[in-house]
Amino acid sequence: MINQDPIIFGLITAIVGLVFYTSKLNNRFCKRIYAVIPVMVMCYVLPSVFNTFEIVDSSHSQLNKLSSNYLMPACLTLLIISVDIKSILLLGPKIIILFLCASFGIIIGGPLALLIVASWAPETVQWSGSDAVWRGMATLAGNWIGGTANQLAMQKVYDTDNTLFAIMISVNVVISAVWMSFLLFIAKHAAGIDKHLKANQTELNSLINATVEATAPANKPTQLLNYMMIFAVAFGVTGLAHFIADIFAPYFANNYPEFEKFSLTSSFFWLVICVTTFSLLLSQTKLRNLEQYGASKVASVMLYLLIANMGLQMDLTTIDDFPIYFAIGFIWLFIHAFIVIIVGMFMRTPVAYMAISSQCCIGGAASSPVVAMAFNRSLAPVAILFSVFGYAWATYMAWICAEIMRNIQP
User: Fold this and answer.
1) Taking all residues of the chain, what is their mean pLDDT, rounded to a whole number?
2) % of residues, the chain, pLDDT over 70
3) In this structure, is the dihedral angle defined by the CA atoms of residues 397, 398, 402 and 403, taken in order, positive or negative?
4) Distance in angstroms (rounded) separating the CA atoms of residues 154 and 169
5) CB 177 within 8 A of CB 205
6) CA-CA distances (angstroms) from residue 396 to 47, 145, 272, 275?
7) Burial of residue 214 (number of CB atoms within 10 Å: 0-12, 13-18, 19+)
8) Angle at CA 293, nearest 5°, toward 287 and 299?
9) Helix pair angle (267-282, 380-406), 10° resolution
10) Which residue in 50, 102, 130, 294 has a CA-CA distance of 20 to 30 Å to 263?
11) For 138-147, 148-157, 213-222, 271-280, which range has the lowest pLDDT when averaged over its residues?
12) How far apart are CA 183 and CA 190, in angstroms?
């Protein structure tokens, strides 16, 4: 078995590179594979094959520590610093309220879905241990409010079992794909739906006519200085967050041990909170312009390496109980959608607002612009703006959702 970290790291890096290379090939076979299995899932599953067949032994690897202590917080930093809160506030109250309600639908939908399934089939719900259902749902909440980086962060905060985490990734991929397909279908009939709902088109038309600037402007030519600044900010914030976390976690553990149930004694919890808070503060400075030089692309490299390393911890032969998790996911999605639709109808907002607000949560930055463009090309920047904000919003909101789920056990 391969058990040396340099070889393992080289292997997962090569796997990620191979996946991206083949995903762009103009080859019928490759296109069919990636039409069924998205790139992100492939980067997770392929390394797990090496673990399942005992080709790689990562049980004593230090790569997990490298991932959680360095790559994870650095990745979050680079994703969050591009948030433009001022531009969001200029979009008008209706779409902002709808986006907040969509996030609220995720926060409250998780606990409600868990209660419904627990009352319907109590023997299927595991409440304790690293494979407790609520722990897996906490990671999904991070993804559905923010993105994959937030899901990985919640996995570390709540020490979610790797097999359960793999299941939740599958649940996310399937449900997100189904939901996006539905919203794209709705986009084709938006005019008729808006007419039936008597939606007020004034604000939507103003937003389209204004052609809102995208959160991430066109990339500028990148120099060595720009890369140095990107890495300096990413790992500088990471180091500062570690410094604060190493103070707060022991303080709460020694003086307020009862707060352990809220994760306040966890160093990684404070690491994620500090990284998110510091990055949001920096997003109000000129450092936000690092996005113009590819900060989010550097973050994406880190993210896919994180995903591949997580895949190395999973044994494919241990995955079971898929149906119950998909049932929870679809109930959760229904609650989220119900809240968005009810609020949207009450405010008489166009269906485009409802779809974008929902997809910014469920799909994130990768797919929300696709849905937005199905309604109108000028709405794509709006979707990007909210999706990027979701990276910062999710850290706090997913924690609230997880703590509610942790404490609702019948």
Assistant:
1) 83
2) 90
3) negative
4) 13
5) no
6) 30, 10, 9, 12
7) middle
8) 80
9) 160
10) 102
11) 213-222
12) 10
Are 363 and 340 in contact, with CB atoms under 8 Å apart?
no
Binned at pLDDT 50, 70 and 90, residue 211 comes out as very low
The helix/strand/coil state of 2 is strand
Crossing angle (nearest 10°) for helices 380-406 and 368-375: 130
Cα 177 from chain centroid (whole Å) = 15
Tokens describing residue 383: 């979707």
Cβ-in-10-Å burial (0-12, 13-18, 19+) of 88 comes to: middle
- The stretches of 121-223 forming alpha helices (DSSP H) are 133-145, 148-157, 162-187, 190-197, 202-210
> CB of 376 within 8 A of CB of 357?
no
- Tell me the β-bridge partners of 2: 56
Extract the tokens encoding 94: 């209706």
Q: What is the distance between the alpha carbons of residues 1 and 267, in angstroms, rounded to a whole number?
A: 33
Question: Residues near 322 by Cβ (< 8 Å), separated by ≥ 6?
Answer: 167, 170
The region of weakest confidence among 16-20, 146-150, 152-156 is 146-150
| Token pair in block for residue 52 | 């399942």
Residues contacting 277, CB < 8 A, separation 6+: none
Round to whole Å and give the CA distance between 311 and 41. 9
Name 191's Cβ contacts closer than 8 Å, sequence gap at least 6: none
Return the closest-CA partner of residue 171 out of 212, 217, 136, 121: 136
Query: Residues with Cβ < 8 Å from 155, sequence gap 6 or more?
Result: 139, 165, 310
> 76 with 276: CB under 8 angstroms?
yes
Entry pTM? 0.73
What does the pLDDT read at residue 131? 78
HSE-up of 352 (CA within 13 Å, CB side)?
Answer: 28
Q: Which residues contact 399 (CB under 8 A, 6 or more apart)?
A: 154, 157, 263, 269
> What pLDDT, on the 0 to 100 scale, is given for residue 320?
56
Q: Which of 111, 133, 102, 81 has the alpha carbon at shortest distance from 400?
A: 111
The predicted structure's pLDDT at residue 241: 93
State which H helix or E strand residue 76 sits in.
Answer: helix 72-80
Distance of CA 285 to the CA centre of its chain: 24
Residue type, 146: G
Mean pLDDT along residues 171-178: 80
